[in-house]
Amino acid sequence: MRRQKQLELDLPRRGGPRRGAGRKPKGRTALVSHAARPRFNKPTPVHVTVRVAQRVWNLRSRRCYRIVATAFAAARGRLGLRLIEFAVLGNHLHLVVEADDNQALSRGMQGLSVRIAKAMNRLMGTRGAVLGDHYHANMLETPTKLVNAIAYVLGNAAHHYGMSTGLDPFSSAACDRQLLLCVGVSWLLREGWRRARPAPATQRTVGQFVII
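Predicted structure:
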C-alpha cells in the first residue's frame, strides 16, 4: 500500500515567542525591567525606584510634594515596610526602605502607591493610573551598598538639577524625620552601615547616617 506524505498545516498557535507578545509598557517605552524582584525572608534594606505616568504633574512642586509626603506619613511603618530615606524627583521617586520580607515589600509599595495615586488624581481632577510602570527594587546587602545607595538617593537632585549647595528640600535630608521616616530594625541599618568603605574620615553625616 502506497503511503501518503502528511502535509503540515500553517495553523495559528498559542504561546511561544512572537512579535508584539507580552505586557505592554505604560508609555512609549518600558521604564524599568520586569525581571523577577529579589526574594528575602528577613528585614532587609532595599533601594526602590518608582516612576509616574507621563500625564502626571511635576512632583517637585509644593502641592505635589505635599501629597507625596502626606502619603509617606499615612503609610509610615505599615504592612512591614519602613521608609528610611527618600528623594522626590520630577517624574520619579527614589526610596530607601526596609521590608520584613519580599511580600512585605510588595504589599507596602502597593499600599503606598495607592495612596499617592488617589491623592494625585484628586489634585489633578483626573482618573486612571498615576504610577508609570512596575517599580525597580535593588537589595542592599552590605554596609557599603547601603551607604552608597543613601548617598545616591540624597544626592540625586544635584545630579538631575545641578544643585551645588544646601539640602534638597524635596528629600528626607530636609524633612520632619519623626513624621515621615522609620528607624530600621536590621543589623545593617542599626550599626552595620558604620563599616562601609571608605573610612569615616572621608565621609559626611546626613540624618542618622554617615554618607560618602
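Summary: The helical segments are 62-75, 102-124, 143-154, 156-161, 177-180, 187-190.
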